[in-house]
Amino acid sequence: MPDSCLVTVVMALYHPNLKWLKEELASIENQTFRQFQLYIWNDDPHDEYPYEAFFSLHLKHIPFKLFHGPNNMGSNKVFETLTTLVHTPYIAYCDQDDVWLPEKLSTLVSLIAHENVVLTFSDMYVMDETSKIIADSITDIRPRQIIYSDDNLVSQLLAKNFITGCTILMQTQIAQKAVPFPDIFFHDWWLAVFAALSGKIEKADRPLMNYRVYRGNQSKPLAGIHSKAEYLEKYIKQYKQFIDLLSRYFAGDKRLQPYKRWSEARISYFQRPTWKNASYLWKRKNWAPSTTKLELLLPFIPSSIFSHFLRKIQSSQ
What CATH code is assigned to 7-212? Predict the structure, then answer.
């Protein structure tokens, strides 16, 4: 590691589109902030493409290291493993198919230097498969997503994630305290909530990257859910596991208690709707408005109609 490094950018690699990867590396090479290095993990142990030469060709001035293991681990475990390998004060998370604006790292580093700030992030422009900008904010294509930026983001983040992993820069020591990353949700929500409970989060005042949307995105809304039963298991019950796990890390933190009660009420209402739980959930609809409205209706929606609704949401971007 060069002595001047302050940031390690970590990238999960899996059968990348080489054209898109080339664009991503060009944007990393062109960062105005230069005190950083790149760690890449190839998550297919059988992929024999010469990535070392590819990265050397497209990163002329940025030091990098390429890693791989004996098994395919998935993106959460890859980012967890890379996080444990980092020794710089700050860590940034990176996908294999986006484009960073030149000032991305410099802006985030300047924000994280503020007192007690442990994580910084930004909004994103959105581009399509041809790299054409199609939206000026991720919220333009995901209208149910709201990006908050007030002084205390704990309450909003505990209800629903709005911080995308590839926009994150955070203190490495906090990220490493969050290891192991739970498998039940993507790493970005875990890291964002962990950071919010540990200190302050700062949002940049403008988008700092171009986020690519296409058919294979892992982070599509309600990805992997196809039925009411799967929604209960993978979305409602796993949220309770999420809160229970946070409660073990942050034992006694009273900010978690209302969300523990909320998680229990969501499960109870789905399984046996009552006016009492309906009233409780409605009074807290500001925590996750679209989710609450859906779940209040969910027990009464026929499965076939719900499956159709799911497909519409999942294809909305």
Answer: 3.90.550.10
